């Protein structure tokens, strides 16, 4: 079974991470969720990332705010794909987090989703895993078809409303 590691810099980030967990579970993907700080527990961050592959993890999602170094620290010590999930902050609305995650040095890539984009982080992890697991790819295809059908229904409804004006 596919497995994604989800790490957040503090427990207060859980509300942002929860949609990623929900998305992954909807595709039958197992998660391992931890609170690890790049700054307060750097040794644990290194241990977690360097042993992730051995524990069966295939993708990491790292949620952090402010300095938001967690994803970069993890990416520096693993060859697994790392997805950075910037967390909204009071000071800059998450722009600080986003810029910290997206501006990685050459050779240490971290894929990045939008601020508080937990669902997209989960979906991106599922898409990465879908390359290896056909059953996940099929579920993603069905998911996207359902989204397209909803848009078509919404458009029909809107057209009907416009015709009554």
Give me some keywords for this one.
alpha/beta; Rossmann fold
Can you characterise this structure?
With 165 residues, the chain is an alpha/beta fold. The protein has a single domain (3-136), classed as Rossmann fold, CATH 3.40.50.1970. Helix content is 50%, strand content 15%. The chain has helices at 14-26, 42-51, 70-77, 95-102, 118-130, 134-163; strands at 3-8, 30-35, 59-64, 82-86, 111-112. The chain has a 5-stranded parallel β-sheet, sandwiched between helices. α3 (70-77) links the parallel β3 (59-64) and β4. α1 runs parallel beside α5, α2 (42-51) packs across α3 and α5 (118-130) crosses α6 (134-163). The termini are far apart. The model has no long low-confidence stretch (mean pLDDT 96).
Strand content: 15-25%
Give the strand line-up of the largest sheet: 2-1-3-4-5
Radius of gyration using CA atoms only? 18 Å
The mean pLDDT is 96
Portion of residues within helices: 40-55%
The CATH architecture can be named as 3-Layer(aba) Sandwich
Give the helix tally. 6
CATH fold call: Rossmann fold
What is this structure, in a nutshell?
The protein is of the alpha/beta class. The chain has a single domain (3-136), classed as Rossmann fold (3-Layer(aba) Sandwich), CATH 3.40.50. It has 6 helices and 5 strands.
């Amino acid at each position: 079974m596919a497995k994604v590691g989800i790490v957040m810099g503090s427990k207060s980030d859980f509300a942002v991470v929860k949609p990623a967990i929900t998305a992954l579970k909807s595709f039958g993907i197992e998660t391992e969720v931890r609170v690890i700080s790049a700054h307060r527990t750097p040794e644990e961050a290194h241990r977690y990332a360097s042993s992730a592959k051995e524990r069966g993890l295939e993708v990491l999602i790292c949620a952090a705010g402010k300095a938001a170094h967690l994803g970069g620290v993890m990416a520096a010590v693993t060859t697994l794909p790392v997805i950075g999930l910037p967390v909204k902050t009071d000071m800059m609305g998450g722009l600080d987090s986003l810029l910290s995650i997206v501006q990685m040095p050459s050779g240490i890539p971290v894929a990045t989703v939008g601020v508080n984009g937990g669902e997209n982080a989960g979906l991106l992890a599922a898409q990465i895993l879908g390359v290896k697991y056909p059953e996940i790819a099929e579920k993603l295809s069905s998911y996207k078809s359902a989204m397209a059908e909803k848009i078509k229904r919404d458009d029909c409804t809107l057209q009907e409303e416009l015709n009554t004006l």
